Amino acid sequence: MKLIKKQIPLAIVFFFGVLTLASYYVPHKVSVDFMEMMNKWENIVSAFAFFLGLISLFYSHYHKISRKADGWGYSLFVYIGFFAMVVPAILCHGKLMGAAGQTALGWSFSFMYNPLSATMFAVLAFYIVSTAYRSFRIKSLQAFVLFMAAFLLILGKVPLGQIIWDSVLGWTGAGVDQVIEWIMGVPAVAGKRGIMIGIAIGAIVTSFKIIFGIERQYMGKD
Amino acid sequence: MIKNKFGFALILLVFAATNAFSALSGQNKKQIPAELPPVTDLAVIDMPYDVGGTALLKWNVRPTDTTDVIYKIYVSSMETGGWIKADEFPADARTGKDIDLPFWAWEVSAHEHAVKVELNNFYGEAQATGALFHFKVTAVKNNISCDSQVVSAKTVSNWFRLDRVNNLVLLIVIIIIFFWAVSHAKRKGLFIRRIAGLDAIDEAIGRATEMGKPIYYVPGIGGMSSISTIASAFILGEVSKKVAQYDSQIKVPHYDPIVMTVCKEVVKQAFLEAGRPDSYREDINQFISQDQFSYAASVDGMISREKPAAVFFMGYFMAESLLMAEVGATTGAIQIAGTDSEGQLPFFFTACDYTLIGEELYAAGAYLSKEPMLLSALKVQDFGKLLVMVSVFFGIILVVIGAKLHWDPFVQGILNLFKAY
After folding, report:
1. pLDDT for the residue B100
2. What domains can be seen in chain B, in order of their start residue?
3. Which of A93, A152, A204, B141 is the most buried (most CB within 10 A)?
């Protein structure tokens, strides 16, 4: 039993992990084909997993409706939204445009899905304002540096800001656009690269933990 | 009058002689022949370190290679005829220096033309590797052209990327440190620095238990092949164990159905290990949507309605990060975030109470589990960063010295060592 539950899965992880790692150093067609095959398998597994996800979604919302749980009315919209897209997709054979112009599926995309999606994205702008207000309250030296950097960036992006800069700090000889370029190109990039180096090393080590079977949490305990 | 004619003739003679002399000396300097000679030393080889399908044409730079001379590269799969123009460029361009390979894998030469011909573009992938192809170079100047001799070669798939040896050496060094740290951890144990964001997890779960409100764990929009999602699944296991111990509630809304399937097993196992399998419910993990903003809208709705005591954002995030974190912040929940998506980190910094930066997310599962073997990985991460810092420090010094002394090949060599190919 231990062989099936532990050793064989670990051997599979090790085998495919090492092969995938080796494929980075082996440019041969065999290696390229192997990676393509892995990607195809991932897509196949994803397709099956999507059905599982759909069953989970319908199941949980069905229970909410049947138990009349708080906010059960919202669960109805899951079904309405699903059928509003899937039924036209089946009827139109998945085509957005037909001989007579936009199909029902195309209409659903253009006048239901896209506006809703764009609305969510647009909300982001308001959240950025509220989060910026919170983060720009100067409570420490670090907060002050953050505020100054952000203030200069905002200032340099509007014509009025450039005029103010030129009239107040024009004597320095440095334009606001040059200051912005320096902030974005030197301290911001330095910080970003530091984080990226840490991420890269962390990713390598995490991969080793999984490939060499040190991290086995995904398989459960003995 | 005669005297004047003689003087005029003398001036003309001097002028003509000067012109003739300057023309001769100019010819000696530039040595441009009256007609364009053909390329005589054309050679073709398989492009090294690639999957195949690319040939590399080489011939020496000639004195006649000026901007007004054009080289045209022709390729054919037939013995005679069937020529296809593969490339065209001015004669003063495309030398060995333009091939982007490091010094240990490629002899950089500015005295040699080196042109890659990607046969896949003309003959398809299946035919490009293994079949015999013929090549010729035509030099063109002022509508006069002359062909080189025809050379032939086959391209092959190569077995090793010699240009990535620097990467391989770094990998081997990290593997050695990794096994050293693991064996050291087994024998003696390791000191691990504190990570504030992870220490706050207990506090967040305790708060949720006291308030009788649920905990939301958002694993982001990454797939199961993303390292951050894998790390998130490990953290979920530890968080779920604590939730089960405290008899609190946890909800995990999912973007990816595969991640949901894995997380179901992780949570189930955590409840089992905590001795509370009866508390596990199938609807802890719930699939929401594979559309980014639908997912964000749904999670926002759930957080707004249920007002959880704690929200965890662990995994890969994009534009939805702020949409969800800001809604969580307005409900007053303790928020702990962790992502390796550096573009989203500022949003989490501003909207969450604690944020795990990049590699701290990967280390979190090990840190929470407190298992020595897993903790050793944190030590490897620290050693790796030290190695990079020392390399960068000495690299900078060497490059500065090389640049100051105008040792261009030396500087180029150092830069090659640090470059990814």
Report:
1. 92
2. 43-154 (2.60.40.10), 162-179+377-417 (no CATH), 191-370 (3.40.50)
3. A204
